[in-house]
Amino acid sequence: MDASDGRKRGRRRRIPLSGSVTRIDSLDHEGRGVARINGKVVFVDGALPGESVELQIWQQHPKYDLANATRILNASSLRVVPQCPHFDRCGGCSLQHLEPRAQVAMKQRILEDNLARIGKVECETMLSPIHGPSWGYRHRARLSARYVAKKGGALVGFRERRTHWVVEMNSCEILPPRISELIVPLRELLSAMDLAARIPQVEIAIGDDTYVLTLRVLDAPGEGDLALLRRFAIEHEVGICLQTAGPDSLRGIDTKALPRLSYRLPEFDLEFRFLSSDFTQVNQTVNTVLVRRAVAMLAPADGEVIADLFCGLGNFTLALGRRGARVYGIEGSRELVERAAQNASYNGLAERVQIFAADLFEQPAQAIARLPKLDKILIDPPRAGAFALVEALGAEAPPRIVYVSCDPATLARDAGVLVHGKGYRLRAAGVVNMFPHTSHVESIALFER
């Protein structure tokens, strides 16, 4: 661990206790090994179940300790050599040392444990996991940037684990190869700019045919910096945007016109246009399978009325409309509502799909009251889940709900409301490995009554 971690966590005492040997019992929801030493729980980075390890405790708490595995004495059969040379320091991944299929199995266990422990819910059928490529999958990423004179210029990459420092990296295995190969040229570009010390982030957005880099800049660039950016964009065939403040400040290098991106769902004959600032799934291969499964679970029929709640730019909405349903999409972001409506029109679904803005966290009952009688619902909330929304469902709620989740704890909490308070049964659930090599767990669940 870098000594800087102690500086960053000055309020806690760093305890460099090393040499302890222990056996790892399990993995926690963050992918850390779990052990007990003298009855106290210890979370051990870099350790896998069944292994005996030497560890160094780097932080103590009243009820648990945090440690790093410094030596593996008895390696698990599921341990693999991390593919990325930066894995030991980079905070972008936490599970590259665990065989990919075992990563998926771990996430399935986390989902099952959360449903049982938090929601007190039993799932009737566990679905086969949705997964895709383990490498080069990430089509959206937020990289940190920092000018470090002692390093000879700018650094661009993910942050180190447990610190705010930027990893000195020249490649990234989870980014598509073309973007990974741009890390060094991007470092050289930022190092040459007058604004080098005023660029804290570079966001990556990738469509099927377009790559866009958005530079967060704290000051407006001068003509010299703009010339460097134009040259980089032409040489590497990427779009470049600048963002000086909030999303409304996003603009192209020379004009307010922004590079357009798009992705396709060929199975549904759909193309989605979006901007680099819009939310889209990071893993388009997995997203394609996820949409297919969600639509199959809802089984829309001609003329049925379906609500897609937290619909974003219409990822599920338009696919349901393409299968013949009349779909109402509700989204809190007015920018995404506008984009979803544009996508519906572009794909010839304007008469079948209606999108409107509403706050599903603060006023879910009012939003639902605007809808006609529903046959089915799809819910795809952010990490906070949809507690107020599922609480607001009344006796007239439809008999089938598909819930797409990016946090197993909030899914389990909301499942408890649906099952114990609203009369639904959890028919099926399974994980979606949207983020390989991380502990992030996405899932999909089917509720019926």
Q: What can be said about this structure in brief?
A:
This protein has an eight-stranded mixed beta sheet with strand order 7-21-22-20-19-16-17-18, sandwiched between helices. It has a six-stranded mixed beta sheet with strand order 1-5-6-4-3-2, with no helix packed on it. The protein contains eleven helices and 22 strands. It has 449 residues and is α/β, with parallel strands linked by helices.
Q: What would the average pLDDT be, to the nearest integer?
A: 93
Distance between termini?
51 Å
Q: Would you identify the CATH H-level superfamily of the largest domain? A: Vaccinia Virus protein VP39
CATH architecture of the largest domain: 3-Layer(aba) Sandwich
Shape designation: flat
Into how many domains do the coordinates divide?
3
Instruction: Outline the biggest β-sheet.
Output: 8 strands, mixed
CATH class membership of the largest domain:
Alpha Beta
Estimated radius of gyration: 24 Å
The largest sheet has its strands arranged as 7-21-22-20-19-16-17-18
Low-confidence stretches: 1-13
Q: Specify the number of helices.
A: 11
